[in-house]
Design a protein that fits this description.
Lipocalin, 130 residues
């Protein structure tokens, strides 16, 4: 009987790990959309990937001459992802929540005292290549 109980516990642990890994894989992708604030409007995208050790976010906005800029302090907790970008003058704090079963990101950007919200959608063709 002990063998069956031990086998059952091992199966449950492996199943739990596989489910957690599947949840994390769903968070990876390229999320893009239009960001608007005041008289500025332009396309932005975040590429979110997990390597063997940590989560990484890369920011792209061609209107701002930014391509694959690595974010700092990437933190993921449940359905939220927070990170920051540092320029010569400013720190850009991004706070996001995944929406629609990880098909979108709803977020806010804070720079100094300014706060702007945005909504991004996942590029499905990028996920199919993975």
């Amino acid at each position: 009987m002990k063998k069956y109980a031990l086998l059952f516990i091992m199966v449950m642990i492996v199943n739990s790990c596989a489910q957690q890994q599947a949840k994390e894989i769903g968070k990876e992708g390229i999320y893009s959309g239009i960001f608007s604030h005041g008289n500025f409007s332009g396309a932005i995208s975040f590429e979110i990937v997990k390597d063997s050790t940590d989560w990484k976010v890369f920011f792209t906005s061609l209107e701002q001459n930014a391509f694959q800029i690595p974010a700092r302090n990437v933190q993921i907790s449940g359905d939220s992802i927070h990170f920051m970008l540092q320029s010569d003058r400013y720190t850009y704090n991004f706070k996001n929540k995944w929406t629609d079963n990880y098909a979108g990101l709803s977020g806010s950007l804070e720079v100094d005292t300014l706060l702007t919200t945005y909504s991004l959608k996942e590029k499905l063709e990028a996920k199919k290549k993975v």
